[in-house]
Amino acid sequence: IVLADNGYNVSVWTRRPEQALEITGQKTNKKYLPGINLPENITANTKMEDVINGVDTIVLVTPTLSMREVLPKLNEKLQNPVTIIHASKGIEPDSLKRISEIIEEEVEEKHLKSVVVLSGPSHAEEVSLRQPTTVTVSSKDKQACEDAQDLFINNYFRVYTNQDIIGVEIGGALKNIIALGAGISDGLGHGDNSKAALMTRGLAEITRLGGQLGANPLTFAGLTGIGDLIVTCTSTHSRNWRAGYAIGQGKKLDEVLSGMGMAVEGVRTTLAASQLAERYGVSMPITSELYKVLFKNKNPKHAVDDLMKRDRTHEVEDLTSVFATQLMDQSKENNQ
Ligand SMILES: NC(=O)C1=CN([C@@H]2O[C@H](COP(=O)(O)OP(=O)(O)OC[C@H]3O[C@@H](n4cnc5c(N)ncnc54)[C@H](O)[C@@H]3O)[C@@H](O)[C@H]2O)C=CC1
Ligand SMILES: O=C(CO)COP(=O)(O)O
Fold first, then answer.
1. Strand partners of residue 10
2. N or C: at which end does the chain have fewer Cβ atoms within 10 angstroms?
3. Are residues 156 and 234 part of one domain?
């Protein structure tokens, strides 16, 4: 919708013929965006080759679980080099790859001009109503990043750039873990103090891990860190919050996921983040408790008790040694 409002012809690839017909013919997408009339210059098609033929930019927004299935198909059908802008939020378990890394792995170099990430506090339900929204684009390729900013920016969708692709992708992925936790807390009947605690200490552990992975700590204070954390932990639009809420109310994970029928990225990312924490020796107590609730059947009330009973500690850590190099690199890049 943002791109169509900016005057571009947008062609959507969908697997379901009835959805392609609905989007192209009726200009609606009732299942995902009820009540929204789509702009005239959006069409949809089930044939990927027809959708990508001749385009120079592809916006990739399928759930992270589908990346290893969708990208090889795309690679096979691409005729010319494209820029891929992705907006999917997650980390792949086991490989522990970010989505931009998976794209670079699955799409041959000859087909790939650049990879850009678009991330930030941006529930589709509100963007489609043209409510003021701010996001960040990031890429290893500075020009591609600025081109993506130009493509998307308009008077209701403000786009910033940030050269720290690691921080942008890690923040966007890991906030979903904390949003599941915030939902559980609300589902258990705990109040605002508990949710503020989860969000603040959650950001502390995201920043700790991000630092080990090479992110700039300041990215976590921005739109793709605290910004997306706030929107996902406090909004009933959030699938992760809603899944957490149902778990807090006593529902089983399988039952919750099949009932939602939509991507709940935080579940897989909890597994991936636990593996990352172990690999890099980073303390992530909230992620670790959530892992036990989701995958080891731990009672959420016991998880909260165990978090509250941890050894006493200080709030602010000295991360100077971890972050000094990243801050110097960032400052060099900004001065270039
Ligand atoms: N919904 C939102 O407001 C936002 C979502 N995101 C991210 O976008 C990604 C997608 O999320 P949603 O659109 O919310 O999920 P969703 O579950 O609402 O929609 C996913 C769509 O992808 C399709 N899909 C699933 N597997 C596929 C496959 N193997 N091949 C082709 N299509 C497939 C589904 O049929 C569905 O149309 C996630 O990574 C999410 O974190 C990011 C920002 C905002
Ligand atoms: O990332 C999002 C908003 O920025 C959407 O979050 P959910 O996937 O929890 O709905």
1. 42
2. C
3. no
Arithmetic mean of pLDDT, 287-291: 98
Domain boundary among 104, 135, 165: 165
Cβ 170 vs Cβ 98: under 8 Å:
yes
122 C-alpha vs ligand 2 centroid, how far in Å?
7
Tokens, residue 185: 């807390």
Q: Which of 47, 110, 175, 298 is catalytic?
A: 175
- pLDDT digits over 239-265, tens only? 999 999 999 999 999 999 999 989 999
CB proximity list for 272: less than 8 A, separation 6 or greater: 90, 91, 92, 93, 94, 96, 173
Domain boundary among 134, 165, 196: 165
In DSSP notation, 294-330 reads HHS---HHHHHHHHHTSPP--SS---HHHHHHHHHHH
Note whether 197 and 130 are same-domain residues: no
Which of the 8 DSSP states describes residue 23? I
**Residue 154 shares a structural domain with residue 197:** no
For residue 84, what are the β-bridge partners? 58, 115
Q: Is residue 12 part of a domain?
A: yes
ipTM associated with this complex: 0.98
- If pLDDT is split at 50, 70 and 90, which confidence band does 317 have? confident
Residue 56's nearest CA partner among 148, 177, 160 is 148
Q: What is the CATH number of the domain that holds 8?
A: 3.40.50.720
Atom of ligand 2 nearest to the CA of 265: 8
* Same domain as 248, residue 150: no
91-102 tens-digit pLDDT = 999 999 999 999
Helix (H) or strand (E) holding 158: strand 157-161
The boundaries of the domain holding residue 141 are 2-165
From the CB of 232, is ligand 2 less than 6 Å away? yes
Place of tokens 């792949």: 92
Question: Do 242 and 128 belong together in one domain?
Answer: no
At residue 148 the predicted structure's pLDDT band, cuts being 50, 70 and 90, is very high
- 62 token code pair: 């399928």
